[in-house]
Amino acid sequence: MTNRYDEAFAKVKKRKEAAFIPFAVAGDPGPDVFIDIVRAYVKGGADILEIGYPFSDPVADGPVNQRAAMRAIKAGLNHRLFFELIGEIRTFTDIPIGLLTYANSVGHLGCDTFCKKAAKAGIDSILVADMPPEEAQELGAAMRKYGIGRVFIASEFTPEERMREICRCVDSFVYVVSRPGITGADTTLSASVKTTLSRLKKVTDKPLAVGFGISTPEHVSDVRKAGAQGVIVGSALVREIEKSVLKGANPSSILRKKVNSLKAATAVSWKS
Amino acid sequence: MAKAKKGYFGQFGGMFAPETLMPALEEVLSAYGRFAADAHWQSEYQRLLETYCGRPTALYEAVNLAQRLTGGRARIFLKREDLNHTGAHKITNALGQALLARFMGKERLIAETGAGQHGVATATAAALLGMSCDIYMGTVDMERQKPNVFRMGLLGARVVPVESGGKTLKDAVNEAMRDWTSSVRETHYAFGSALGPHPFPTIVREFQSVIGTECRAQILKAAGRLPDEVVACVGGGSNAIGIFSAFIKDKGVRLTGVEAGGMGLRGNRHAVRLTPSPNSKPGILHGAYSYVLQDRDGQIADTHSVSAGLDYSGVGPEHAHLADTGRAVYTFATDKEAVGAFKMLCETEGIIPALESSHAAAYVIRQAPKIKDGSVIVINLSGRGDKDIESVAKFLGTNI
Predict the structure, then answer these.
(1) CA-CA distance, B267 to B22, in Å (whole number)?
(2) Among A49, A112, B339, B363, fewest CB within 10 Å belongs to which?
(3) What is the mean pLDDT of chain B?
(4) B10 in any annotated domain
């Protein structure tokens, strides 16, 4: 199917870049500033957006993203406001919006209702952090029904047979975890990313986007050189949001500059 | 990937885990199958249960308690899990999982703990088997279970304070799962209760099923028949599923799980998941689909109980299934009722029960007027209460 993801990956391929995918938690630190942040991401050169639905117990996330989720929940983020905010993002950009969520947040509303509302608001893909393909059949059916793309994770621990199955289930892109563990935390990038990417390339031609622990332009260009078609930066940006909140400032201009420099690093030449 | 759903009890359970954990869960699942069939490792486990834990634990007839409650109309038995090494049923599972970890070639054990009993049990098993050990514990629980924190240190474990969320058991599980996602190669996560993603609810039940197996044989000998009712407290639900498992097929035996009623159902200061309450509904927490306390938007609710071991928002998925099918009945006892039962067991039987187990006793006390003549009731006394002395004193307004 032709969709926003196909267009976004085709566009960066033409320019010999990787897609830059910044992450923010919906409603963090509050609804209005969150919209400012997303605008800054788009103006800074984001090719794709990854938006988190805040969950109280995010076991796949590190402390930075968990604190962001708690700020968002405290600021009143709920299902209704979430879909409103996604709708608002759709008024100023047409780039793909991916949702990163946890199973209980989807299940609480029901898979069908959740996907119906998500599609209507303008969400293009959903990754459920604690729902492997085995458990995603009901949700997958609802996503297909409403034209939302599936995203699953693969890591260096994933055996080959499982990699094939994950890639077969994916519609939008494969979320490649740069190292085992949770979001955030590391300052060095694991050398195994390269191996994981080349293992994946042997079993799929779907886009591969690398995330977890990427915080600097050097990381971005390393991942690009290792063969990624997309680079996801989360905690490093969320940390900037947190810093600004503590200072009582609006993080938009800092984030715009940061996204701009990270995006620039996706333009290194790369031979497969 | 298998189309048949693995690890479900009716509609509950499953493997709702981050992808980075899936290979580790598959490894545990397959290793457990080989471990359970390996004569050498099983005989080592049996040897340790007998000579190290002190199994079988006694089944004691609480004549004084029965006299006080029913005037001797009924017989009440206590399954004395408090007599296990380290003071609770937890050691049975911790030792089993530590051996399983060794069987898989892992060097390090991690665990979550609420009351500290599972933390102490895991630290003990790690010391015995020469493994390194990190225990995750909420800072609220560390404060109310200081002796256990010190005990774990003495046993060579590192206690990692958890400051996120409500700083209790749920948050400790989050942190332990996070640790495991980045350390799966050398580390085994010894879940302390019959919860978490498949295969943990099954593995923990299997290790704890010895409680029920022993108890069934003991009560047949002592009373000459099966009991009318088996009562156990339910936090995550490991002691309850352990004792229930041997009686599930005995349709005439009523199985009753007692949850922490805290300050009562109004105001949501409780940990009642399986009795209908305004904020309990099926959901996904820590890898399994089960009943979960949550708010109107699906955020997990904080809980309250005087007893740290029952203070948890979710419940083992097999209990959710037993509740839905009606095979087991679930009720609750409040903080006040539990402390009352704690005192009554001290006074009538000279047994200081864990506050967790006191909830099971509290239900029997409340039911006493309705108990039929000649009834035989078993209470699973899952642990001893020495760790709870401070909490009880505080509850009663006494300084010690």
Answers:
(1) 38
(2) A112
(3) 95
(4) no
The reply to whether B383 and B251 lie within a common domain is yes
- What distance in Å separates the CA atoms of residue B264 and residue B269, rounded to the nearest whole number? 7
In terms of domains, do B380 and B242 share one? Answer: yes
Residue B2: band (very low, low, confident or very high) from pLDDT cuts 50, 70, 90: very low
Give CA–CA dist A163/A147, Å, rounded. 24
Boundary of a domain, candidates B197, B224, B258: B197
Nearest Cβ partner for A103 among B19, B170, B284: B284
Which pLDDT does position A184 carry in this prediction?
A: 58
pLDDT band at B267 (very low <50, low <70, confident <90, very high): confident
**Strands B376-381 and B328-334, bridge-based pairing:** unpaired
| pLDDT tens, residue by residue, A90-149 | 999 999 999 999 999 999 999 999 999 999 999 999 999 999 999 999 999 999 999 999
B304/B167 Cα distance (integer angstroms):
12
Question: Tens digits of per-residue pLDDT, A195-244?
Answer: 999 999 999 999 999 998 899 999 999 999 999 999 999 999 999 999 99
CB atoms B1 and A78 under 8 Å: no
B280 touches B293 (CB < 8 A): yes
Q: How far is CA B103 from CA A228, B120, B262, B331, B396, in A?
A: 38, 21, 40, 39, 47
Rounded Cα distance between A249 and B162, Å, is: 29
- Cβ within 8 Å, pair A108-B178: no
Using an 8 Å CB-CB cutoff, list chain A residues near B182.
179-182
Domains of chain A: 4-263 (3.20.20.70)
Contact check, Cβ <8 Å, B18/A162: no
Same domain, B19 and B74: no
CA distance A54 to chain B (A): 9
Domain, as residue range, for B238:
54-87+202-395
Give per-residue pLDDT as tens, B24-83.
999 999 999 999 999 999 999 999 999 999 999 999 999 999 999 999 999 999 999 999
CB atoms within 10 A of CB B150: 12
What residues pair up with A51 in beta bridges, in sequence order? A24, A99
Q: How many domains does chain B have?
A: 2
